[in-house]
């Protein structure tokens, strides 16, 4: 009997020794230090992306008391989640928080993780991206209820998988595309005055009223968002999404919050970026900075975040525009595009 008891005690001591927090912590940080030391001498080789990607990002607090925007760029998405099927993946996102930074911080930290760990990430990445917004909203609402958080955030994300572009969004942050010098609309933001959004809100028992702008229940100027626990279910956490084929003729993607799009029209983006490339002789690294400055000059007082993802070398984009200043002039070309082209008002009056 004593022998069994002694053996049991020995096992308990052994388990406690294995799970000793201080020892485990020491081993972990020693291993981390060794890995960092190795990587400082030489980073592990990464599989080069087949697609050209150059990212320009700029964000400012502007005239607001706090900076509530957040952004994420993961051109090495595969390496982060151990995906080794030979298909290139890159992820980009912009979040525009309101009522505090908690929801934006949480979304910027967790949304891409939910995407990367989703069971459909390989077979159906569009579904993985769209569903991950809903899951992130549910996760944050649990945290918000526990910690009495009332903030929310809009969000827009783009996931490039091979030659496919997948997008998903909540609220009025937006993603647009420029293809062969033409602005292209990919989505419609979630605003309370949209007929379908107003109908959804009123069916649930809420209301849409005008108070300097259209608002849900007289408060929020967006009809979908992550968080906003006090406005659920009127402010929905269900994202919209869409997918497009990339043909190689696309110049760049642009993701930005409403602080940018309220001041700059999509067709103006094309002129601003082209002017910047002409001034810099085809160097696009500060293109986002130029766009943010233009939005501020046009009267935006909100936080402004702009993320430009060049899908072609900016020098090639500049060369093509200089070679053909009118860009796509043929209606046949526009009609054959899978996208919907936006035209400048000035062009429409000519």
From TrEMBL:
CDD domains noted in UniProt: PP2Cc
Domain PPM-type phosphatase: 54-311
Entry-linked SUPFAM superfamilies: PP2C-like
UniProt-listed InterPro entries: PP2C, PP2C_BS, PPM-type-like_dom_sf, PPM-type_phosphatase-like_dom
Metal-binding among keywords: yes
UniProt KW keywords: Hydrolase, Metal-binding, Protein phosphatase
Keyword Metal-binding among record annotations: yes
Family, per entry: Belongs to the PP2C family.
Protein name: Protein phosphatase 1F
Name of the coding gene: PPM1F
